[in-house]
Design brief:
- The protein is an alpha/beta fold and about 250 residues long.
- The protein has a single domain (about 20-250), classed as 3-Layer(aba) Sandwich (Rossmann fold).
- The protein contains seven helices and eight strands.
- It has helices spanning about 30-40, 50-65, 80-95, 120-145, 170-190, 205-210, 225-235, and strands at about 1-5, 20-25, 45-50, 70-75, 100-105, 150-155, 195-200, 245-250.
- It has an eight-stranded parallel beta sheet, sandwiched between helices.
């Protein structure tokens, strides 16, 4: 596993001219990543299920004079191939090409032993954390092959790399995410510039973290801002050719 350069300091306009889709851009790490990418010059496509939250991200970006983002309200719990293809058609007509995808949105679901795990929670979390990422990647890849700096980042977790009891569908979905990313990276290695990597943010101060660790003092964990050097590195052209790797952001 790789620790990206944690002190990586990109140029102010490192992502200028890039179009990057971020799922779950209305809260937590996704919101900070969207803002940070826009600050470094990218046009960000803000995908999420809660419009008001996406609008807050949008407003922060516009208020600071960064490139105007696009809001895409989509619920990944019901996303299918047709919706993913419609999104691809929209991006193609608006931008012609797509340079990056940050698969960030996820659900924690319930933490309980597999033996007692509620099937409906299992199915929903697999849909949001894994299937939706597959549908989006499949539909959007054709738009990325023509990019000069294409990068796909799948968000993983430590429980998606080493199994831990009672993390249930969340951990399993992250193992599957690692599998999807590594399979895709291997397929593209010789035939496309698209690089594909996974990124484990590590313990980070968000809603998801406080749901998983309610007794923890949020001040003891990293802020999403602390992770951004690694996120920027993976979309900056300095990481061109780096693919099939498992990164840690802390
Ligand atoms: P948050 O819960 O804070 O944010 C998750 C985002 O995903 C929200 O914007 C949420 O939207 C969105 N989302 C959830 N379900 C859907 C859906 N059905 N359709 C569209 N969007 C959806 O999580 P974090 O920021 O903490 O996590 C970001 C990523 O990092 C996740 O992949 C997580 O697994 C991973 N991670 C986080 C760690 C941490 O300590 N925080 C540690 C390891 C990994 P809405 O706001 O509308 O609910």
């Amino acid at each position: 596993m790789i620790k990206a350069p944690l002190d990586y300091a990109p140029k102010a306009d490192a992502l200028k001219g890039l179009t990057i889709l971020i799922t779950g851009a209305g809260d937590g790490i996704g919101r900070v990543a969207a803002y940070t990418f826009a600050k470094h010059g990218a046009t960000v496509i803000l995908l999420g299920r809660t419009e008001e939250k996406l609008e807050i991200t949008y407003d922060e970006i516009v208020k600071n004079g960064f490139p105007e983002p696009v809001i895409v309200k989509l619920d990944l719990a019901t996303l299918d191939d047709t919706q993913a293809n419609e999104l691809a058609a929209m991006i193609e007509s608006e931008f012609g090409t797509l340079d990056g995808i940050l698969h960030n949105a996820s659900l924690l679901g319930r933490r309980s032993p597999i033996e007692n795990f509620p099937p409906e929670t299992w199915t929903k979390v697999m849909q949001v954390n894994l299937n939706a990422a597959f549908f989006l990647t499949r539909a959007l890849l054709p738009l990325m092959h023509t990019s000069k700096n294409p990068s796909i980042v799948f968000t993983s977790s430590s429980v998606g790399r080493k199994a831990r009891a009672h993390w249930g569908v969340y951990g399993v979905s992250k193992f599957a995410t690692e599998g999807l990313a590594m399979t895709l990276a291997d397929e593209l290695e010789e035939v496309s510039r698209v690089r594909v990597n996974t990124l484990n943010p590590g313990a980070t101060r968000t809603q998801m973290r406080s749901a998983a660790y309610p007794a923890e003092n949020p001040a003891d964990v990293a802020s999403p801002h602390d992770l951004m050097p690694t996120y920027l590195y993976l979309f900056d052209e300095v990481s061109l050719g780096v693919s099939g790797q498992q990164f840690n952001a802390q």
